[in-house]
Amino acid sequence: MRINCIYGKLVSIDELRPNPANANRHSSEQLERLAKILQYQGWRHPIVVSKRSGYIVSGHGRLLASRIAGFTEVPIDEQDYENEEEELADLIADNRIAELSDWNDIKLNDQLAGLKQKLSDVELTGYDDLDLGNLAESLFSPSLDPARANGDLSQDRINAVGTTLNNQFTGNNQELRSVTCPSCGDDFSISVNDKG
Amino acid sequence: MDIKWDSELKDWQVENPILEITNIKLNCDVFNAETFDSILNGKAKQQLKTWGGSESTAEPHWIGVTHGTPLHTDPRYPRYSWQLLVFVDNFILRGKNKEETPLQAGTLFLLDTHSPHQLLAKDNVARYYLACSMDSKERIPMSDAMIKLLDYAQNNELHNNIERITK
Questions:
Q1: Residue A194's pLDDT is what?
Q2: Which of A62, A91, A124, B125 has the fewest CB neighbours in a 10 Å radius?
Q3: Is there a contact between B25 and A187 if contact means CB atoms under 8 Å apart?
Q4: From the CB of residue B44, how many other CB atoms can be counted at a distance below 10 Å?
Q5: Which of B11, B12, B25, B30 is the best substitution to test chain A (most A C-beta atoms within 10 A)?
Q6: Rounded to whole angstroms, how far apart are CA atoms A162 and B85?
Q7: How large is the ipTM?
Q8: Is A185 on the interface with B (CB under 8 A)?
């Protein structure tokens, strides 16, 4: 077991007391992945324990995952809390704040594609092959949603661009307008100055 | 940089360099070869030129190709290039795996220019390829790219900043 973080002391995992107020639940799938990551990375953050209550405040998942990883001791950092409210608020915020961040899916996909070639197991990123497939599919089969675009992507706007380009190639300032034939449904351009 | 078909891909290259693609109804159905030839010499063999825009290819600009290209990469330019096709003859785009992507006016695609790619004529008369393009080191979302390219195509004539044409 490698420890790469500053910590107060090493304690047996059996000595640690999960906080009964903890409302955050961990699936077996999450814990399996976390155990792999702990084995690969070692400890990057100690488990935080309240000096006031003796309960874990941050690191419930890491404690459970360390059992799966076969660890018998874990690094902890004992911290002061003024009262129960401060301790509970920190416990909740520790989980909640991470949920509020957002991914740049395009950058993430590129990074995961690169790491998949170099890591022995892509799950060391917290993502599995199914996650990677879903992420790639969402990017490479994009549905262009004009309503969510940061600008005008309406067909009227696109038609205006087509008209401008047509004017350039015809070499005059005739205004061309795209129309749809009510009979056959085909689209074509007409000149609004056309007398014929 | 021309690439041999039997060369190995680097670990950061992909077999199909078209990363995203969609088609919009551009309704641009007029093309004047004379206009295009006044910028590029369409009668000459394979050419790829960019012009317009600003000093940086990160800003939207025009890109014109005549007679297609060999399999190649563009390592001196940013990796990603969004291209909105204004006019294209019977060309397809393909990468190392030779999977063919058909092209038409209104096709918008994201090209990984650092992976091998080829613009290939599918008949003997195919000559012209004209697109509005912008390059970037990181991938730009499709809708953002489309808005910028449409803005540029609408507000910049083909001959704008022709002095910036690549040699």
A1: 41
A2: B125
A3: yes
A4: 10
A5: B30
A6: 11
A7: 0.81
A8: no
Lowest mean pLDDT among A98-112, A171-185, B21-35: A171-185
Q: Give the position of tokens 């005739």.
A: A174
CA distance A13 to B111: 52
Cα B160 from chain centroid?
A: 18
From residue A35, give the alpha-carbon distance in Å to each of A66, A77, A130, A173.
6, 20, 19, 69
The total number of residues written for chain B in this structure: 167
* A94 in Cβ contact with A86 (< 8 Å): no
Euclidean distance between the first and the last CA atom of chain A, given in angstroms as a whole number: 86
Q: Give dist(CA A194, CA B1) in Å, integer.
A: 49
Maximal CA-CA distance, chain A: 93
Contact, A96 vs A58, CB < 8 A? no
Pair B60, B81: CB distance under 8 Å: no
Residue pLDDT, tens place only, A108-137? 887 888 888 888 899 999 999 889 888 877
- What size, in residues, is chain A? 196
Phi, psi of A156, rounded to the nearest 5 degrees = -60, -45
Q: Do B147 and A155 touch (CB under 8 A)?
A: no
Task: Say if strands A73-79 and A47-50 run parallel, antiparallel, or are unpaired.
Answer: parallel
Contacts of B10 (CB under 8 A, 6+ apart): none
> What pLDDT does residue A196 have?
33
Contact pairs from chain A to chain B, CB under 8 Å:
87
Predicted TM-score (pTM) above 0.90: no
Report the C-alpha gap between A56 and A22 in whole angstroms: 9
**pLDDT tens-place string over residues A39-87:** 999 999 999 999 999 999 999 999 999 999 999 999 999 999 999 999 9
End-to-end CA separation in angstroms for chain B: 15
- What confidence score (pLDDT) does residue A163 get? 87
Q: Which residues of B touch A (CB under 8 A)?
A: 11-12, 19-20, 22, 24-32, 35, 86, 138-139, 141-144, 146-147, 150-151, 153-154, 157-158
pLDDT, tens digit (0-9, with 9 covering 90-100), for B23-78: 888 887 777 788 788 787 666 678 888 888 777 777 899 999 998 999 999 998 89
Neighbours of A15 (CB within 10 A): 11
